[in-house]
Amino acid sequence: MQLTLWTYEGPPHVGAMRIATAMQGVHYVLHAPQGDTYADLLFTMIERRGERPPVTYTTFQARDLGGDTAELFKTAARDAYQRFQPQALLVGASCTAELIQDDPGGLTAALDLPIPVVPLELPAYQRKENWGAAETFYQLVRRLAVPVERLPQEARRPCCNLLGATALGFRHRDDVEEISRLLDRLGVDINVVAPLGATPADLARLGAADFNVVLYPEIASLAARWLERNFRQPATKTVPIGVGATRDFIHEVGEIAGIDVAAARFDENSRAPWYARSVDSNYLTGKRVFIFGDATHAIAAARVAAAELGYTVVGLGTYSREFAREIRAAAETYGVAALITDDYLEVEAQVTELQPELVLGTQMERHIAKRLGIPCAVISAPMHVQDFPARYSPQMGFEGANVLFDTWVHPLMMGLEEHLLAMFRDDFEFHDGAAPSHLAAEAIGATTRPEALVAASGTAIGWAPDAERELRRVPFFVRGKARRNTERFAEDRGLALITVETLYDAKAHFSR
Question: What total number of domains does the chain contain?
Fold first, then answer.
């Protein structure tokens, strides 16, 4: 067992919570001890939902282990049905309660409730959150979906299901809205959006659609394959993140639905391609970017970064081990080695080694980049409350491409602004101690960096004031790397004080 400060995914029952919370008319009874009852924090604090998640816990305690914990579960399931009157019931155990082996499915079947009961077998010590969400959605679809006779296509427009959006998903609500608008303009109707906003009755009529649009493969690919086998519904393979991928998605939908999309001009209102070709964006060409997240967003981000913004992908990875093959294939196209890990320390080590100029990752990579002084944008779960904005902010479609451009470019442009401010900081008129020119106020006290830092080895290395001033002239994006290289150079040579000469000697050494 490994103790850790951060984790990219929770246990699989958290994934089941995401499905239950996303849907309407579904309740989840979880066999769990005190301490595993944190669903309210996830959904009401982070996602800022207006209602509590539909989860009931048994919340057994240590003293209950000597008694009948099975009866505790049956009582909790019976009470949940009577109180909430759900249309379908999910039952399962948390990672701790799994060790008791009380069989929630069998216990609930003995209650003979008049609604569908879907037992969840989620191996908490082998699988994680996204797999748990995918398995839960698959079990619901398998249990509730029934064959539906479709109307002749001559009498209606093609229709599809949008699959994969969940609660606590990265911009899922806005993505569903954006792709729904795009499909409507293409002439495609939407039969069911699931699991987000769907009811058990909606899942029952999934078979009425002609095909499925898989928005998030981590969540929906398992259910989509079952629907393809049993209802002969093909599924899309392209995730429409970025201008290029959205165009490919439109053509794929056209082929599946049998409609002509050649004349479709959806990107005429997208500003991202124009901005990417503008003079200002030439400054961003070749910027080195490190990408890490779930497989869907990481692969899409790499394509957008390389093909649409002109960045150089120097690292690509994911914590989604189930999609390691796809990530490795994508990394090969950029000439980099894929990083497949759920250990944030390995990610931090690679970011430190590569010293990229931009990091695209999760909330964890944001913390890593902040500590290393590297600009960062969050592109994937896990995320925090700031990544659930009140405004409309999709990642998919042409409007999503505009959002990506703003989100990824602004950290670098603000970095340039900070660099320019640093360049003029020692100017006689603009330095930190100068009074505001328009107010003629008293001089502002200058804020200086500490003159002594601690190197990675623990050796105290001091910086001479003139060396600090010279370091501030180094561009913002590589200043952190220059500082670390110089300190390593001084440490290797046993120097206790870094002077301007040391700074330039280190620069010459690492430029070879």
Answer: 4
